[in-house]
Amino acid sequence: MDNKTGFMIVMIGILRREFPAVEICGCAPGGMDMGLKKIGIIANTDKKDAVECTLELRGWLMRRGVEVVLEEEIARATGMTGGIPGKDLPAAVELIAVLGGDGTLLSAARTVAGHEVPLMGINLGGFGFMTVINLNEMFPAMEEILKGRFRTSKRMMLEIGLPGAQAEKPVPPALNDVVINRGNLSRMIHMETFVDDRYLATFKADGLVLATPTGSTAYSLSAGGPIVFPELQSIILNPICPHTLTNRPMMLPPDAAIRVVLWTKEECATLTIDGQISHVIRSGEAIEVRKSKTLIHLVDSPSRSYLEVVRTKLGWGGLH
């Protein structure tokens, strides 16, 4: 073993010790490819560049000997045959490129939940905190990925327990957040909140956000919550527009079990999962939220750190 290889092994060991939620993927000695030979593509067909970008990426990968499997919706949009349902894609490929915005990636995350296949988010949308690879970086980033020079971060998800008859329905885990919201109601709702069966408070507010570190830059951020490094393990509890001004966001341990009982003079309120799936919650009913056993593996930007992503996305000042 040469000195360079030995140094790489030591550095990877240090990184794994300091950041256990980060996976380091490296080249074999001599710069040999690590053998990514099957890549899937999911794309938001509502985005105007989705079809063109999918065809360009597919052609680029195939010229490099990579087999490309398209999710069936984008396959139809491109006129290609052989597309497969999204639920079957994780078992068929070694990595999935997701073309769209953060909403597309959230939907893809529910599709791959329970599988270890990494998701590579390519931003065709606007903000894009999770789709960290910009369109002009797509091919250089993919070049690095095919050489094995990339990192993935393990993102925790939240498991949701619904009340009453809804408890029998399968509920997908949340990558960003679980939100109780008064919706169209004109009055505040009361949310009696327990952590590990111990009473915390009854929040009188427009709603309550329970977010992962990944979701700390979504709804929770708009409600005054903290930005949390995605590699950390914690649950953010954040009331929305609380009546009591001393109510503030809290960061709870990752193994905390949160139970929220809704009390409202109106008929019901709404529970949303990642802003995409909704359920009706009635007064007197309780929901339970805890860390899911399911993790999502997201490909980090090969060229930018998380700090740089935060700085550029939020328009913070930098050196000139």
Polypeptide structure, described:
With 320 residues, the protein is of the alpha+beta class. The protein has 2 domains: 130 residues, Rossmann fold (3-Layer(aba) Sandwich); 135 residues, Probable inorganic polyphosphate/atp-NAD kinase, domain 2 (Tumour Suppressor Smad4). 23% of the residues lie in helices and 33% in strands. It has 8 helices and 17 strands. The strands form 3 sheets. A 6-stranded antiparallel β-sheet has the order 1-7-17-14-9-10. A 6-stranded antiparallel β-sheet has the order 13-12-11-8-15-16, with no helix packed on it. Strands 3-2-4-5-6 form a 5-stranded parallel β-sheet, with helices on both faces. Strand 4, helix 5 and strand 5 form a beta-alpha-beta unit. The protein is globular, with a radius of gyration of 21 Å. 36% of the residues are buried. The N terminus is likely disordered.
* Cα shape: globular
Number of domains: 2
The Cα radius of gyration reads: 21 Å
Strand content: 25-35%
Q: What is the architecture of the largest domain at the second tier of CATH?
A: Sandwich
The level of helicity is 10-25%
The CATH superfamily title of the largest domain: Probable inorganic polyphosphate/atp-NAD kinase, domain 2
